[in-house]
Task: structure prediction
Amino acid sequence: MKESHQLVIEAATPGDVAPLVALHAAVAASLTAAHGRGHWSRCPSDRSIERALNGSHVFVGRRRDRVEGTLSLTKKKPWAIDPDFFTPAARPLYLLDMAVHPDVQRRGIGRTLMTFALAFAAQSGFDAVRLDAYDYPAGAGGFYAKCDMAFRGHRTYRSTPLVYFEALTRSHSQSSAVTA
Result:
């Protein structure tokens, strides 16, 4: 049987806690080495990953049984998101904690995860995907712009400069057409 080299995106399970902690630690170490200490230097604990598994849709991108990327999607608005910057939406979904292992960055894994997130949102009836990124060279704002996420503004929250992005799903244009 031929082994698949394709990235498989699936819901994370409790068995993924340790690999997710290791993935986030590798990303934090890489960003810290490149940009110095900052908010990006923090690593999640097992407990915080377990909490995310219980309160969000956490997905992993896996190749050959190795977790190479991850993201979380949640209905609960994160503390740093200011809804005034975004297009009004009845059912927004928030993207959190996206990470791709430094060893495999710039190989399309992040873009594949973003495409998956937007499709998941649309298929699940959400009308927008919103996110924030650190407004620093260590932040992923440039990546999100390349993924056709719409820039929505800059904001400093609790002395942390952020940049906001969103993508509207087909559900948003359908609900707008119905209410127009």
Summary: The chain has five helices and seven strands. The longest helix spans residues 17-35. The beta strands are 8-11, 57-63, 66-74, 92-100, 128-134, 150-157, 160-168. The mean pLDDT is 91.
